[in-house]
Specification:
single chain; mainly alpha; 0% strand
Length: 481
């Protein structure tokens, strides 16, 4: 007993610190991607398959990751059960107890190493199913051993020297297993930050998204950039702050796939009012990967916004039969009021090829008219894509609505357009902040001396890196997806 407790406590601390520390958003996302429903039909579908009851139980346990501390506790307790089951089944002496943790560490990392693949796996409850299978297998072997004879015992009459050797070997194997599990767990910072931003967006916590973007120390992926833009749009600060946030197109730390669409496609389409695309991708992914609550939530939200009450009730009933996704109307009224102004168009599926960001940028850039929000999205997306043909009509249409405070990036773009093209329809440049005008004049003079080639990007970034001018001239090669 005195040797078992330290191993157990160290394993508990290791597992919970890892799961509830860096991997907490991964656990939450796993819960949302686990289809588990308290209905006879759902149970019947599982039971009709071999090991169906085991899969149903495993799915129920995995769905508890929706509340990370609960799921992590169940997960850790299940792994401990595997370790103690091995000791009992093979009658291992306490001195060799460290060997019993090799399989629990392997089962732990079998789940924590998945990363992005949690979206595309079709395995049922990949976190808990292997644990239950191993646990049942070990218990059956133990029962077989008891039924035959008491024939297995390590170091029953061990000498003190052999006992020390056994303990040392046991500790070394335990520690090496822990190190291997930690090093092979998927702790990619961009992936975990993307999940944190996604969960904040789902909760309407837009300031939290911006804080995560500001705190990032590495080049962001397009998922992070898109969620940052959405948060700035929702908070009304897009025109003042967009180009002050990090830009980037860091590679996803996974095999090539449409990760942006898989992770946040329905979310982005929904919040930008492209309801048809939000519904389409949520439905297609549900057909492909199962009736996951993550998809049902968007199917429900789109039906609700479209006024399809009977269809919305159907999805609502399904979600009501989950353990943790019953409260689907939280923030719903606010969502509807924010998204409704973006619905001033004919919502039709004209093909996006799964390129969510590319489609959103270009569809808004090329749109004309609509609500004030749609015109501003068209103006801003024109700046992002550097398609400035429609800049002045949109700028002049929005000018009265700004009531004396023109957002900084629009002022920057107006000065640049007047310099590059001339013939500005803005007759009175006194509406442009003198500080911005002076800063632009310094850039013009500096560029005349240095040129605007990419070699000067580093030199100019400290003073101009947070302006639209810098983005327009020096930010190149970003791969929208």
């Amino acid at each position: 007993m005195k040797f078992r407790l330290p191993f157990t406590l160290v394993f508990v601390a290791f597992a919970l610190i890892l799961l509830l520390g860096p991997l907490q958003p991964y656990l939450r996302e796993t819960g949302a991607l686990t289809p588990f429903y308290l209905t006879g039909i759902s149970l019947g579908e599982f039971v009709s398959h071999p090991y169906g009851l085991l899969l149903y139980v495993a799915s129920g346990m995995q769905s508890c990751f929706a509340i990370p501390w609960l799921g992590a506790t169940l997960f850790t307790a299940s792994l401990i059960a595997v370790a103690y089951a091995q000791k009992w089944a093979f009658r291992l002496n306490d001195n060799w107890f460290g060997l019993c943790w090799v399989i629990p560490f392997w089962l732990l990392v079998n789940y924590t190493k998945m990363g992005y693949l949690i979206y595309t796996t079709k395995a049922v409850a990949p976190a808990f199913t292997p644990i239950l299978q191993v646990l049942i297998g070990v218990l059956l072997l133990g029962c077989l051993r008891v039924g035959l004879s008491h024939w297995w015992m390590l170091s029953v009459k061990a000498t003190s020297s052999r006992r020390v050797i056994a303990i040392v070997v046991s500790v070394l194997i335990f520690l090496s297993s822990a190190i291997t599990a930690y090093s092979n767990s998927f702790r990619d910072v961009n992936f975990l930050n993307s999940l944190r931003m996604k969960h904040a967006a789902e909760a309407g916590e837009w300031e939290q998204i911006l804080q995560i973007a500001r705190d990032g120390e590495q080049e962001p992926t397009r998922i992070q950039v898109c969620l940052t833009r959405l948060a700035l749009f929702k908070t009304g600060r897009m025109g003042d702050e967009l180009f002050t946030y990090p830009e980037g197109s860091a590679q996803y730390n996974a095999t090539q796939n449409q990760w942006l669409r898989l992770m946040v496609g329905p979310l982005l389409y929904y919040h930008y009012g492209k309801l048809g695309f939000a519904y389409r991708w949520a439905m297609e992914d549900m057909v492909e990967y199962g009736e996951r609550p993550a998809y049902l939530r968007y199917l429900y939200s789109v039906a609700k916004l479209n006024g399809e009450d009977a269809l919305a009730k159907r999805y609502e009933r399904s979600l009501a039969r989950t353990l943790f996704y019953k409260d689907i109307d939280k923030n719903k009224e606010q969502e509807i009021s924010e998204i409704s102004p973006l619905l001033n168009y004919t919502d039709q599926l004209d093909g996006d090829n799964g390129l969510v960001e590319f489609y959103l940028l270009h569809s808004f850039t090329l749109s004309e008219g609509g609500s004030r929000e749609m015109v501003e999205l068209s103006l801003m997306d024109g700046l992002i894509t550097k398609n400035l043909t429609g800049f002045w009509p949109r700028f002049m249409a929005l000018l009265p609505t700004w009531k004396g405070h023109i957002p900084a990036h629009y002022q920057e773009a107006a000065l640049m357009m007047a310099q590059l093209q001339g013939n500005s329809p803005l007759s009175d440049f006194s509406v442009i902040d003198p500080t911005i005008q002076q800063r632009f004049q310094r850039l013009v003079e500096t560029s005349a001396r240095m040129g605007d080639n990419t070699a000067n990007a580093t030199a100019l970034r400290p003073e101009y890196g947070n302006t639209y001018w810098y983005y327009y001239f020096f930010v190149e090669g970003l791969k929208t997806n």
